[in-house]
Structure formats: C-alpha cells, structure tokens
Amino acid sequence: MKTNNQAKPKASEVHYWLYSTGNFANNIIFMMVGTYITYFYTNILGISPAMAGLVFMVARLVDAFTDPLMGIIVDKTNTKIGKYRPWIIAGAPFLGIMFVLLFTAPNFSMTGKVVYAFITYIIYSLAWTIVQIPQLALPAILTNDIAKRTRIQAIFQAFGSIASLVVSAWALPILDKLGGQDNASAWFKFTVIFGAVSAVIFILSAMSVKNVDVYDPAAKNAKTEKKGFSLKETFSVITKNKALLCVLIAYGTDMFAFQISNSLRMYFFKYNMGGRTDLITYIGYASTFVGFALVAFIQPFVKKTGKRAGIIGIEALAILVTLPMLVTGLKGAYAISAVMFTYIAITFTWTINNMLSRSAVLDSANYAQMTLGINGTALVNSTFTFVNKCCQAFSMFFSGIILSATGYNKDAVEQTPGCLKAILLLCTVGPIIAYVFSIAAMYFYPLTRKGEVEMQEKLDKMSFVNLEDDLIL
C-alpha cells in the first residue's frame, strides 16, 4: 500500500468570484443577441421579421444534435489542463469572432443576406455551445453544498447583470456615439469591441480555476477498469430524470416569457411608449442592483425554502407584477410608472428564478447520479443550454410572425393599432401564461428542501469514499 498525500483541491470563495466573471462575457453576447438581433435583422440587415424567426428555428434543429453531443464530449474530457477549461479557452475566440459576424450587414442581395443570416447564426450558436456547456457544468466541481451552489449562481448572475446593464443601458448610447442605432458600421464597431473583451474575460475566468479543474488520473484508470455505459444508458440521465424534466419546463417557460419581453423591448419603448427608449437604461441599472443584492440573501433563502417552493413563489409573484403594465396598456394610455414597475419587478423575479433554476439543473445531475449511478453533469447541462437557445429562438420566431401578421413596417414612424396591441400582449399575457406553466412544472419537482439535504449528505459521503480510494494506490 502506498499513500498519496495530495488531497483533491477544494474551491475557495475566491474561486467562486473569479469563475463568475465569465458570466459578464456570456451575458454581453447572449443579451445583445436576445435583445437586438431581431431589430438588427429587420432594420439593419433588411430581412423580414418572419424570415428572421425562421433563421432562429432552423438553428435550433442543428442544436438538437450538437448540444447533447457537446455534453457527452465534455463529460468524457480529462486532459492535462482539466475537464472544462480547455473547451472554454479554445472556444472563446471563436465565439467572439462569430458575435461580430452576426451583427455585420454585408452588401448582398436579399437572398444573399438571408443565406448570410442563416450561416452566421448557426455557426454562432455552435460556438456558444462549445463555451457555455462546460462553463455551466463547472460549478459541480466547486462544491457539493446545494445551497452554496445557489450562492455561486447568484455571484455568477451578479456579474451577468453588469453585462445586462451594458446592453440595456449603454448599448444604444454607445451605438449613437459610434454612428447611430440604424448605422451598420456602428453595430460592427460595437461588437468588435465587446466581442474581444468577452473572449479575454472568458479565458481569464477559466484560467482562474486551474487549481480546481485538474487532470484526474483516477478517472482515467476507472475507464480502463470498468465497462463503459451504452449510449442509451448515458442518455438516461436526461430521459429518466424527473427532476431535470421539471426544471427544464419551469425554466423554459419562464425564459420564453422573458425572451419575448426582451426581444420586443426595443419595439415596445420605441413605438408603444412614443420613442422613450431612454427608459431602457433604468431597467439595466435595476438589474445590476438586484443581481449583486441577491448574493447576500439567496443562500439563506434557498436553505429555508428549497428550490421547489422558491421557484413556485417567485413565479406567482411574477404574474402579479405583470398586471399593472397590462391593465394600463389595455386602457390605451400607458403610465410610465406602471410600465417601469412591471419591467423592474420582472427583473427581480427573473433574476431569482434564473439563479434557482441554474442551480437546480446541477442538482438534477446529482439526482440522476443518485438514482441511476451515472455521472453526466455536462450532458445534463447541455439540455439547459439547448432549452435556453430554443426559448430565445421560439420567442423571436413567434414575435416575428406576429409582427409580420399585424402589419409591422420598419420604415413607419408609427405602427398600426393592431401591431401595437400585439406588442403589448406579447410582453404581458404571453409571459403570464408561461409563468402558470412554470408553477405547474415545479409542483411535480421531486426534490423538496428535505430531499435536497438528504442528497447532499449522500454526495458528501461519496466524495469521502472517493478521497479514501485516491489515498490508496
């Protein structure tokens, strides 16, 4: 018997914060695409809203294959520089380049522009998959503490909220400084700057956990000694995972609601609110404040309620805070106070739900490990990434179809009453319906707070046993 005195490295509070900086890069790109790509396609590139929606939908068909494939690849990765970091570091520059190309408007024919939109959006989506799946799976190695994971997600989201502030509050003023909101060159310059910044931050974030995400010789030895799982068994972490199914439905419906509101925000404030796009700035500041404020409160909140009860309560609140904007809008006289109350309150509810859902996805990976005996953390997270992109695509596709059907005209100063009403309903009634589905899904979520505690105890015991095995050669 020979003893190895090197224990497995543990993550510290510093690791949580440095890793989380990567979400600034992630959200700069994701929020820019979610908020402005439809507007860019219709008003800058010049394609129809319906065609823009078709671009998003076709990309999701590709993602249905590439996302789970990437999850399996990451789960099997075990290199000298770690499991997750290699993909983030290698994919970041690629993603930055595709971000720039996505917001580039070449002087092609209409057919050429449509083809260009299809190609660049699909490749961008692939680049995002390469970076985000390992990025989202990485917290699984930072801690087994289920409540602490939620706190990590809170820190992660706090840095993301800074990016949301940049996008919602500063993007339009920066574009104005660079040449104007309807100037193709301004969009290109903006994405070059922030695409490069994001790529660097992605890499630095990944490098910050180099002492935690390390080569695991024990895992390599285990592969040679044990029979591998079949493809069907591997995918059982998704197909037989009730916890994951509930989270994906709950998060997906909530994200669908958020993305509809997000993708139409520019249209709503420009047309329904009489050109008051300056108000978007305040939503960005509110998002940043909420993101950092929740870092201190989210862990004790989850310890008390658990994710199941927490998400149900937050979604019920989201329904209530959406009503003021809907009621005043239907009366035909938009009250700035009601609209801003709803948007800022939804920022609060969505931020909390996003934190809880992201952490619950990691819990569902552990749930599969406990019930099926298969560790497929990255594969489970690939479903989250896929649902995230699907919700963004479905919301923009749905919004594009409705805008086209109600007579949206990018050259018109004022839109038709039918178009204005459609924008209002998509930003309010659509989300309310989605929140109801989210509540229903979480009602069937199998992990109560007691179940979370029991699962964490089992994980801690497994980690202790694995550590003992590593000390014996």
From TrEMBL:
Alphabetized Pfam families for the sequence: MFS_2
TM region(s), chain numbering: 16-41, 47-66, 87-108, 114-142, 154-175, 187-207, 243-260, 280-302, 309-327, 333-352, 423-445
CDD domains: MFS_MelB_like
Keywords linked to the UniProt accession: Membrane, Transmembrane, Transmembrane helix
Keyword Plastid: no
GO molecular function: symporter activity
Gene Ontology CC terms: plasma membrane
InterPro entries listed in its UniProt record: MFS_2, MFS_trans_sf, Na/Gal_symport
Keyword Transmembrane helix: yes
One record GO biological process: carbohydrate transport
NCBIfam families: gph
Protein name: MFS transporter
Protein's organism: Roseburia inulinivorans
Gene: melB_3
